[in-house]
Model the fold of this input.
Amino acid sequence: MTYETAKAAFADWGVDTEAALERMKTIPISMHCWQGDDVVGFEKKTGASGGGIQATGNHPGRARTPDELRADLEFAYSMIPGRHRLNLHAMYLDTNASPGRDEIEYEHFAPWVDWAKDQGIGLDFNPTFFAHAKADDNLTLSHPDQGIRDFWIEHGKRSRDIAAQMGAALGSPCVNNIWVPDGYKDTPIDRMSARARLEGSLDEMFAPAQDKAAMLDAVESKLFGIGVEACTVGSHEFYMGYAIRKEILLCLDMGHFHPTENIADKLSSVALSVDDILLHVSRPMRWDSDHVILLSDDILQMAQELVSADLLGRTHIGLDFFDATISRTAAWVIGTRNMQKALLRALLLPLDQLKAAENALDFTTRLTVTEEFKDMPFAAVWGEFSARENAPTGRSLIEELDRYQSSVSFRD
Ligand code: RNT
Ligand code: ZN
Done:
């Protein structure tokens, strides 16, 4: 079907495809650097990622250097319509120096900023509280040892400074997201002290004021992780309360709740109490497995809530998945495009009619319309968006992905 035919079909329902296409151009997705190298990073050390984060698989082509990672990202961005962001972790520094986590500085990340300027993209940032000897107990900011807490507080403070400088340099606020692996394998006896220590460490980390135009603080909760099955110190309730009190962003990772919970349902509730939300869009399979996101009901519902509740303006959409069994660049491209496809579908719904039906308790019409809409020609509108943004679709996309993968599969 041509775009013009699709446009007319949507117009028949009162839906303006041109408005949806314009909107799509303004929604950046923050692509996570860690899909490109299996969460390894560029610190001068080896070892597993730890903290319950583990990419599985050994597909050839893992980026081994910042230059390789940037080349992979440039390719991935060229396959994705629109202009996006890069979400960097502190362990991805680009320097010949070997600073400790408590010694990192902006200059260690300056090449990333220069590159981001060149690409015309924004950066987001994360301190790395895992894959480190001082995180081996799965306790960092809540560790009973003051020295270990201080080490991580320093890391967090420096990350905030670096994020602020990145945001200032790029003229776009850099979201600095805090996730710590802290928890207990078996049932703890003193949850309160652990949580009070985490709170105290966060208070210290957040004490220096930062310019919100340059950086935004976010905190990410989790239900459990491998090795911390019994208790996660930074639980949802912990961070929800903390984010509200501190007026910072709450990060909702779709893999960090019970599998039967609907994360899309949480957005409107959270949005009544916090200004901005950070999303880690992910696909948990039986647990927080971080599979590449599909155009699945979960993602469609998430996008629908963002549009229906008018939250796009204060939601920062980040991705969080990592799969090493398939082409890493293809994983980025597929996942990011799926998030965009979901947003486009949401923007093409006759929301006013649906809301009016719901308000009138006409749930029959609401159901008829949502189900009839599943047959609408979304693909033609997506194709038009991609064509206007010079991104391939269908068979030519597959050819490009294969071609690039072949060019990097020599990497060991
Ligand atoms: C871990 C969290 C966290 C990480 C990244 C690498 O469970 O989801 O967001 O995935 O910081
Ligand atoms: Zn996450």
User: Anything to note?
Assistant: The chain has one domain: 28-348. The CA atoms of residues 387 and 393 lie 8 Å apart. The pocket of zinc ion (ligand 2) is lined by residues 179, 220, 253, 280, 320 (CB under 6 Å). The domain at 28-348 is CATH 3.20.20.150 (TIM Barrel).
